[in-house]
Amino acid sequence: MRLGLAGIRETGIGRDALRRAGSARTSARHAALIALAAVTLAVSVAACDAGGASANATAAGANAEAGAKAAASVPASASAAPVAAAATKVASHDAGQSRAQVYESVRQMTALGKQLFFDASLSGSGKLACASCHSPEHGFAPANALSVQFGGSDMHRTGMRAAPTLKYLQAVPAFAEHYHESDDEGDESVDAGPTGGLTWDGRVDRGGEQARIPLLSSFEMGSTPAKVTAAVKAAPYAGAFRPAFGEHVFDSDDATFKAVLQALETFEQTPEVFYPYTSKYDAYLAGKAQLTPAELHGLQLFNDEQKGNCASCHISQRTRDGAPPQFSDFGLIAIGVPRNRALPVNRDSHFYDLGACGPERTDLKGRDEFCGLFRTPTLRNVALKKSFFHNGIYHSLDQAVRFYAERDTHPEKFYPASKGKVQKFDDLPPRYWANLNTEAPFDRKPGDKPALDEAEIKDVVAFLKTLTDGYQAPGATVHVATTGAAAN
Ligand code: HEC
Ligand code: HEC
After folding, report:
1. Same-domain status, 336 and 392
2. Beta strand extents in 130-199 (DSSP E only)
């Protein structure tokens, strides 16, 4: 059970206090301001450069244009922060650069990161790129319906988790055991419990650190810093490293590997690719599209605290300062997803993926209160996914939503039986059951009415389908860039 949420209810602040969705933390906001200042400055540099814009100023101008495009659809605080963070990071690495140069570096790193993302030569097998598991056409989730993806040097190895979407990660705060919203987001005194961090268990905070995991993992890309360095030196884009990272980038494998990680992280922060806010629901919030009766009903059920209560964790409303909802509060929560017996790792009946308390994550090992917790994913673009939950056990949204509606009223539909008795929560040893969430819709027992009936489940699914980016209003002629087009 999530203390923070119960606490919030008791204080009567209600859902409003949960709207950390924009999640630009105070520091990110500052960074956004700095970036906006940088963009403004860059634009004026470009404007002043009467004798024909220099290469730097043009690039900065282009970047400003991209920023402005994103800012036109969403509030600046939500769109500019990560670019700004990247820009200011570059700036702090290379003090003495002009802002235009900083922006040019970000642009170069982004271009390089994109090429690295699609390059299978970085992997030990030579067959696996980031994009193999994170397909741009599928919201950067897998294109196939496998619960877990194949990898490793022989491409026969698997891990224990489903590959998540890489979109809207810009809003994930750094992991905190006790998350407190900043004062302008909500009530600073409320402890929302463990929140944030990347991956299903929140074990890293930055995209760069994250990228290290699949590159080096024996069951994913199975590479080494030396192999990655050799691959990028031989790649057609090798010449782009020195302009982006400086003369010394090839001095050591370590320096090159770090540059690769930073380029990937910078690419993952491209607003128009990774957080464009172009779903039908965004258009609806902006008053530019209407939801069908089924979608609208689905939204009501999604928000209704007595029905789906989905929005208590998957935030659906704009933040108080107008930032679009992220469809996650990024809390780490135990919802008791059934054991996926199809996973090779689960052939060992003593093995459990306990999320935040291990085994992938090691710093909270032995902390029982973290066992079974996984980070709440965004539901944006969820309809492009083909496997759901951390172990990829379900392969349709209907099944995923039915699990919420009937986990407690009809547990036999989800868990195996042994000697006629349903083995509820079969992927979490009983000593951790106290960690399981018991709020609606998980507040029922056999014999009770499910929180959602079959028709309601269908409507919730119809609503979830409005969260896919790239929506075009019927009859609209303006082309909205889709993730696929933008990333290819
Ligand atoms: C073999 C499939 C595979 C490949 C290849 C792969 N990933 Fe992943 N990715 C995953 C899985 C599985 C997870 C979830 C890992 C976990 O929770 O432990 C993940 C998680 C992530 C996350 C965190 C997402 C979140 O919701 O917090 C990021 C970012 C990411 N990957 C980026 C990359 C990058 C960059 C590359 C290339 C260097 C890459 N991935 C290559 C499977 C893959
Ligand atoms: C108490 C918080 C909470 C509530 C309430 C909640 N969710 Fe979730 N949701 C989570 C967490 C945590 C996960 C990941 C769990 C895991 O994989 O172990 C998740 C995962 C999902 C997924 C799978 C996404 C993916 O990328 O694999 C879907 C779909 C989903 N939720 C939909 C809903 C709907 C619909 C409702 C309302 C009926 C709802 N959720 C209510 C916390 C919540």
Report:
1. yes
2. 150-151, 157-158
Are residues 382 and 248 part of one domain? no
Task: Convert the pLDDT of each residue in 335-377 to its tens digit.
Answer: 999 999 999 999 999 999 999 999 999 999 999 999 999 999 9
Q: Which domain holds residue 264?
A: 100-170+208-274
Tell me, yes or no, whether 441 and 388 share the same domain. Answer: yes
DSSP state of 141: B
Distance from Cα 241 to the centre of ligand 2, integer Å: 40
Query: Phi/psi at 165 (nearest 5 deg)?
Result: -65, 150
| CA of 337 relative to ligand 2 center, distance in Å | 10
Atom of ligand 2 nearest to the CA of 302: 37
CB 189 within 8 Å of CB 201: no
Q: Please name the residue whose Cα sits nearest to atom 9 of ligand 1.
A: 163
Cβ(170)–Cβ(192) below 8 Å: no
- What the block records as the tokens of 331 is 């809390």
d(CA 18, CA 366): 29
Q: Is 166 in the pocket of ligand 1 (CB under 6 A)?
A: yes
> Is 71:80 a contact under the CB 8 Å cutoff?
yes
119 lines ligand 1 (CB under 6 A): no
Ligand 1 atom 20: the closest Cα is on which residue?
199
pTM, two decimals, is 0.85
Non-local (6+) Cβ contacts of 9 within 8 A are: none
> Do 262 and 117 share a structural domain?
yes
Q: Which of 33-37, 46-50, 104-108: highest mean pLDDT?
A: 104-108
Task: Say if ligand 2 is within 6 A of residue 376 CB.
Answer: yes
**Vertex 173: Cα angle to 167 and 178 (nearest 5):** 140
Calculate how far, in angstroms, residue 281's C-alpha sits from the geometric centre of ligand 1.
Answer: 27
Q: Which residue has the tokens 């030396």?
A: 226
Of the spans 210-214, 243-247, 390-394, which averages the highest pLDDT? 390-394
Same domain (yes/no): 106, 214:
yes
Mutation choice for ligand 1 from 118, 175, 210, 275, CB with most ligand atoms inside 8 A: 210
Which ligand lies nearest the alpha carbon of 380?
Answer: 2
* Per-residue pLDDT tens digits for 258-300: 999 999 999 999 999 999 999 999 999 999 999 999 999 999 9
Higher pLDDT, 202 or 181: 202
Contacts of 468 (CB under 8 A, 6+ apart): 139, 279, 280, 380, 381, 383, 384
Q: How far is CA 260 from the centre of its chain?
A: 20
Q: Which residue has the tokens 């409003």?
A: 16
Instruction: Find out whether 113 and 100 touch, Cβ atoms under 8 Å.
Output: no
Check whether residue 322 and residue 409 sit in a common domain.
yes
- Helix (H) / strand (E) element for 421: namely strand 421-422
Kindly give the residue spans of alpha helices, DSSP state H, lying in 240-394. 241-245, 253-267, 271-274, 280-285, 293-303
Cβ atoms of residues 120 and 75 within 8 Å: no
